[in-house]
# Entry
Amino acid sequence: MGSDSDLTIMKPAADILQFFGVEYELTVVSAHRTPERMFDYAKTAKDRGLKVIIAGAGGAAHLPGMVASLTSLPVLGVPVKSTNSIDGWDSVLSILQMPNGVPVGTVALNASKNAGILAAKILSIANEGLAEKIKAYMEDLKKEVHEKADHLRIGGYPNSFDK
# Structure
């Protein structure tokens, strides 16, 4: 993440990776305040065993794109609505509008949990155990929706779809 103030937004990515049993690093790397650290982090990521990088940043949000320009690893960008942000649109567009040749997979504003899930899905290509955990997670999501629909029906709300 670009700043420790992004931790509350980025923590759900760490939480879901932990839930799936995926090891991860969590640190602060600023594209603007510590460019040498960013270069070193991105250039050595693969050698440290990383397979996917999730980079969250607010404002001008250069971190995901700059990291993607320095590594062959897939980079997932999390736009962060920061205190100096223009409703988060500056971050969304800074991460989303990368030039051809430097792609960054971009999730919704403040949606680090989705970045964590997507990273786990990428890793599951070569890890059948992880793929099974993700499949079970998806089944749980489906079950939650059915339970919520049943709750509404039991509560007396009409729903001809569920008849």
